[in-house]
Amino acid sequence: MPTTAAVALAFQAAFAVATAGALAAQDSAGVRADRVERSLLPVTRVHGRHYSPATIIERMRTYNVPAVSVAVIDGGRIAWARAYGWADVEHQRAATTTTIFQAASMSKPVTAIAALQLVESGSLWLDSSVNCSLHSWTVPMTELSAKHPVTLRELLTHTAGLTVHGFAGYAPGATLPTVPQLLDGLPPANSPAVRVETTPGTAWNYSGGGFMIVQLLLTDVTQQPFPDLLKRHVLDPMGMGNSAFEHPLAEEHRSVAALGYLANDSLVPGGFHVHPELAAAGLWTTPSDLGNWILAMQAAVRGDADALLTPAMAQAMMTPGLGGWGLGVQIRGSGDTAIFTHGGANVGYRAAFYGFVHRPSGVVVMTNGDAGAALVEEVVHAVAAEYGWPGFAPHVVTPAHLEPAIVHEWAGTYAQGTVRAIITADDDAPHIRLPGGQLPTTEPIEIVPLARDRFITVDGALTGRIVRDASGGIESINIGGTTFKRVQ
């Protein structure tokens, strides 16, 4: 099977599937797209260092990402869409603008629209206990939820105090759990039970498990299969004709699906994982379809007559609460510069969208690589720079000037279960190697000291902290919230 590096070299001549339909003829959009393709820069930059722009193809090679698909919204329409690389490396099936990718957690805001429509029709309530509407399962009552029952608003804003951040998915052909089995963590579910662990409404804690309750709530109330409900009430009205909440994927759709790839270039076994967690992670879609979703949300905020939500509900969705989250979306900035956004990360896929709340602009980027998150953000920032969008300044870090002996002290092997994190300090430039997909490359990556016991990877993907014992010796390191004990 060709490697991603070979693929990238083959595409140095700027292999690209250009904008669909009439957009291809619009020279100004094409010129701007060309500039974006050649203007990628790291989002995290070290103060004092020089950075030269790279092409999308070059950065695909850096991050071992076989395919990237992009859609840009400008002037209240999709101004251009392009795709690069291979949807299937082995069979050299090129990615196009109609290739579908796993949206992963970007499924959640699309699901939220259906829930809010039911609120507006009087079938659901934002601030009543969801147990009043659930029939096939109920949220187990605890001391924490006895006086503060879980509500739909809390589920949509990740403030319901629930467990289970995300889901790993299942191998194709595996026996899939029902939604109640998922919520109770019963076989064949491969995730723990979804339970209240903090008082609902008091803190923000991202919970994919909470959106599985939303999924069950929608099907219990409407008595409709979730994929049919979302197609009829959200996907079709929003012009998302290439999208489906479908797991396992139908054979006719598999031929237009981007297969998923791990950070080491290898194909995800079976091509991709299956996600019965439809509301949380189960949408297959394209950047252009998600661009239509963004346009529909902007229309609702404006109060357009044919919008799927009323202006009041759309504004409620875009109003940040705890953790900066609205109803299904994260909100950044305020006023004219406010942005609604969400990312997605399933095994073999990384993606993100950004839409302005009060401007007719936005961008969607989807990839089929485990190491695609950094590439997604580089493309987003290149688009933002081209169009002069506010709120997308690079993250500049200033390195701490440490004595070489301190940097060398960090060097060693650290373990968390079977995963080893290895820090080296050759020539006083520390690097870390962390297999398992936590970094955007399987090769050692430079870490930048921020203080005596703090560092950040040079791409900004992870921050780290040195943990010392009572005598001052290094006991462990904490990387991205995970503790690795020193073993050598």
What does this structure look like?
This protein has helices at residues 4-10, 27-37, 56-63, 107-121, 143-146, 152-157, 179-184, 208-222, 226-235, 251-254, 278-281, 287-302, 311-317, 373-387, 404-410, and strands at 44-46, 67-74, 77-88, 93-94, 101-102, 244-245, 283-285, 330-332, 339-346, 349-356, 362-367, 395-397, 412-416, 419-424, 431-433, 445-451, 454-457, 463-468, 474-479, 482-486. It has 488 residues and is an alpha+beta fold. Among the domains are: 102-120 and 170-179 and 222-395, DD-peptidase/beta-lactamase superfamily (Beta-lactamase), CATH 3.40.710.10; 400-486, Lipocalin (Beta Barrel). A hairpin with a 5-residue loop joins strand 10 (349-356) and strand 11 (362-367). Helix 1 (4-10) runs antiparallel to helix 3 (56-63) and helix 4 packs across helix 8 (208-222). The longest helix has 16 residues, at 287-302.
Short description:
With 488 residues, the chain is α+β, with helices and mostly antiparallel strands. Helices cover 28% and strands 21% of the residues.
